[in-house]
Amino acid sequence: MKMLKHKRARVLLAGTAGLALVLGACGGADDLGGGGGGGSDTETDATGSGADCSAFEEYGTFDGETVTVFSSIREVEADQLQDTFEAFTECTGITVEHNGSGEFEQQVVVQAEGGNAPDIAIFPQPGLLQRMVADGHLVPAPDTVEANADEGWSEDWKAYGTVDGEFYAAPLMSSVKSFVWYSPSAFEENGYEVPETWDELMALTEQISADHGSETVKPWCQGIESGGATGWPATDWIEDLVLRSAGAEAYDQWVTGELAFNSPEIVEAVDMAGAILKNDDYTNGGIGDSRSIATTSFNDGGLPILEGNCFMHRQASFYEAQWPEGTDVSPDGDVFAFYLPGVTAEEAPLLVAGEFVGAFNDEEATQAVQAFMSSGEWANTRVEIGGVVSANRAVDPEAASSDVLRLAIELLQDENAVARFDGSDLMPSEVGAGSFWTGMVEWINGADTQGVLDTVEQSWP
User: Which residues form the signal peptide (predicted)?
Assistant: First the structure.
């Protein structure tokens, strides 16, 4: 198979899909320029659907090949991910089988060590990616994928998929985590204004509690349950607050282990989060007391806003996909989001995250799927389907499915933004996807800040 230079043609979508798309190949057996379409500008796929396959010529054609993809992506987002491969499958003949698991971080290691690895995995933590490289499970990305990464992403984003100078994984989706979801209509009805500083946010929290506080109605709602990854939403709170209270330089030192996990700077940030998350007067609206956060799925954590039992929910831009179908996500709609304030109105640090596509083999079909997933076509297709954003330069912000996501894309593409990648995702996986997660669950369940952070610090490899 010959890989051609990546184009930016629009990918055709063809409705919804199941976990596997089993569609016929487009064009001839060797390439799309010969046979089938007769080399015309508009190719006709083997199923006779008349799809335009010219955008997929670079990936080659395959007869009944299947490529497996494993990730932590589930539910609505899993269906949306699968939808991105419909035209690709029609035109290349490659069936993409995606499997999403709440136990991804544990299972991908088990599968790799057991000789049963998928063809491709989508890693939400660069730390876990680095561990898989160090253990010899992943293969370097092909030149086509690296060229796409150079074209579409900043050097910082590419660096997260690079280990010891070798490029292994192109970025996929991105997200802005520094958002608070709320109901614009509820704010207007009660005369509440979007806060611009942390003190204003805490004053608003206290006011909502005074106005509406009861066993069922609280200022905040939250959930941190996520299968084997339970605890990660709480680590996002801590990372955002380290970035705000201690600053970007201290944040960088903390992520690399230079600043101890149990240092005063980190204790202060955790206690700032605890002033909300561990206060029964402030959480967990529509669900239970503050400890119910630990057993509430992160997917469901913000839904009480729609029922009037909660006013605010801190979660990333990707949470848009969790709102029920028909929810109006707009400045005057059912829900919207505001930027999680800094200490002052002038300070606006941004916590971001993303995913990276690594391969366990260098089969040609695997490389073709890798190349497609690293392209601007794939990024625009996924953004158009809705619910997510990307930092890929090829993405048109106007393609975003809501004003929140459009804002997120603009923030991600702003070269002057002071942004930092999710800290737990950068830390060694034993900490970032291990003791930090479990420590936050213990903390929500009543453990004291200093004791939890001492334990996490001791786990640093």
Answer: 1-25
**Residue 29 pLDDT:** 32
Q: What's 63's DSSP letter? A: S
**Pick from 318, 341, 327, 388: which is nearest to 197 by CA?**
341
Beta carbons within 10 angstroms of residue 136's beta carbon: 8
Helices 436-444, 449-458: inter-axial angle, 10-degree rounding: 160
The reply to whether 54-176+353-412 and 179-351+418-458 are identical in fold is yes
CB distance 237 to 269 below 8 Å:
no
Q: Is 461 exposed, middle or buried (0-12, 13-18, 19+ CB in 10 A)?
A: exposed
Q: Is the pLDDT of residue 182 over 70?
A: yes
Residue among 313, 345, 339 nearest 197 (CA): 345
What are the tens digits of pLDDT across the range 375-395? 999 999 999 998 889 999 999
Count of beta carbons in the 10 Å neighbourhood of residue 216:
15
CATH number of 179-351+418-458: 3.40.190.10
DSSP calls for 205-260:
HHHHHHHH-SSS-EEE----BBTBTTTHHHHHHHHHHHHHHT-HHHHHHHHHTSS-
pTM: 0.75
Backbone φ, ψ for residue 419 (5° rounding):
-120, 145
Q: DSSP H helical segments within 114-163, as ranges?
A: 126-134, 143-152, 155-160
pLDDT given for residue 41 in this prediction:
41
Q: What is the DSSP letter of 30?
A: S
- Hey, which residues does 176 pair with through a beta bridge? 352
- The CATH code of domain 54-176+353-412 reads 3.40.190.10
Domain ranges within the chain, ordered by starting residue:
54-176+353-412, 179-351+418-458
Separate counts of helices (H) and strands (E) for the chain: 18, 12
The pLDDT tens digits of the residues spanning 323-335 come to 999 999 899 999 9
